[in-house]
Amino acid sequence: MLRRAQQLKHHIILGLIILLAVVVALVSSQDVSAKRIDIPLDLSIEERVQTWPRLSDDWDSYTVQKGETLSELFDRAGVPASELYKILHSKQVKTDLSLLMPGQSIHFKRDENKNLISVRLDTSPLSLSLFNRNDQGDYIEEKLSREPEKVLRYSEGEIKGAFFTAGENAAMSQQTIMALANIFGWDIDFSLDIRPGDSFKVLYYQEYLDGVRFRDGNILAAEFTTQGQTHRAVRYTDQSGKSDYYSPDGRSMRKQFLRSPVDFTRISSHFTKRRFHPVLNRFRSHRGTDYAARTGTPIRATGDGKIIKSRFSRSYGNHVVLKHGSRYTTLYAHMSKFGRGIKEGRTVKQGQIIGYVGSTGLASGPHLHYEFRVNGIHKNPVTIKFPDVEPIAKKERERFDQYASNLLGNLETYPSRQLAQLSSE
To answer: Alpha-carbon distance 145 to 160, whole Å?
Structure first.
């Protein structure tokens, strides 16, 4: 009788676990991705968190005001100008205090006789400088820095409308959504290729300071499925300290050119030999791709290059032409304004902002007209196959394979591990 009761109890518990598993499987990806679990990974990239010196009651704190000079701040704090002079001219002080930025915090500590003995400047949430007065009355600088606590997170989602909305529904920050798009931006045109039913998985860090969420860290591994094709990427740091994203077979996720010069916009006019021009009111060839976007939307260089044109013309309006090596050139037209420092003869990096969407020149509304040329011949930037960047080095291959296998294994098994944790709680 006792044995049958134990068996019955066992079956009831087993049934409850199965029921819980079914319920969890039916909840949306938004609900699942909002939960957190620590996964033990031997990634060899965790850094020790340094203890941050806390301010006690004997410190007086001030925030740098807009337009406030260093001498004005010291005067507001009641610190004699002679002490400021000692700090600025000490051979043991390397930080230029005169370069204070509005919003930074500076703190003063005095002894029982109200004499200044220490100054602390918080240059960022992760770094500070301490200026301590020694027995000779000179100030010595000590720089401190710390790393946030890192917590591994997993998010997944299915696209029903806009990609950005799907990312937000998966409890991802704007920073991580943009990072995900940038990783796959060489292979996927997020203004053209995305369809309802596409999906993604992301394994990344969230960083915390003093128990409070500070920011999202790097994406470690990601998967994006669009139109039945799955792309995977792993962030790998080689033995020289260089980090980049690679496919599981060691190919660089980067290409020589980005697939699109603007983020999350729609194509309003495709590359074609015959198109009715809305301003000229006649048919003519359209040797580029038009991206409809709001005025002021940032335009990015699709590849490293040299600026050979940065000027205004009647047809293109404000436009930039970049030369990429000996074979390729790209053109960006109808800008409302140029990016900072965009002048002929200068060089730009892939992804750098070179201007902003507008409607200058022969344009009926705000959009970017983008052209891609190979040896002077116009090519369709949507369909052309871009050249690859160098794959993982041979000397890194064995180390990379082990690392990538570890990360991608965790990316695949995360939902089942989360389910197991929920079942055990």
So the answer is: 43
The three-state secondary structure class of 150 is strand
Closest CA to 49 of 236, 211, 239, 215: 211
Amino acid identity of residue 16, one-letter, is L
Q: Which class is 148-255+390-425 in CATH?
A: alpha beta
pLDDT at residue 337 greater than cutoff 90? yes
Distances (CA, A) of 311 to 292, 316, 336, 337, 347: 21, 9, 12, 10, 16
Please give the CATH number for the structural domain made up of 266-379.
2.70.70.10
Short-list 262, 339, 261, 343, CA closest to 309: 343
Q: Where are the beta strands (DSSP E) in 10-148?
A: 59-63, 105-110, 116-124, 127-133, 139-145
All CATH 2.70.70.10 domain ranges in the chain, comma separated: 266-379
Query: What residue type is assigned to position 367 of the chain?
Result: H
> What is the C-alpha to C-alpha distance for residues 37 and 303, in angstroms, rounded to an integer?
38
Tell me how many helices (H) and strands (E) the chain has.
7, 22
Domain 59-145: which CATH number of 3.90.1150.10, 3.30.365.10, 3.30.360.10, 3.10.450.350: 3.10.450.350
Query: Whole-prediction pTM value?
Result: 0.62
Q: What are phi and psi of 192, to 5 degrees?
A: -130, -40
| Lowest-confidence segment of 141-155, 276-290, 345-359 by average pLDDT | 276-290
Least confident of 13-27, 83-97, 177-191, 299-313: 13-27
Q: Which amino acid is at 364?
A: S
Mean pLDDT of 251-277: 67
| H or E, element range at 82 | helix 81-88
Collect all residues with Cβ–Cβ distance below 8 Å to 320 and sequence separation of at least 6. 307, 309, 310, 331, 332, 335, 338, 342, 354, 355
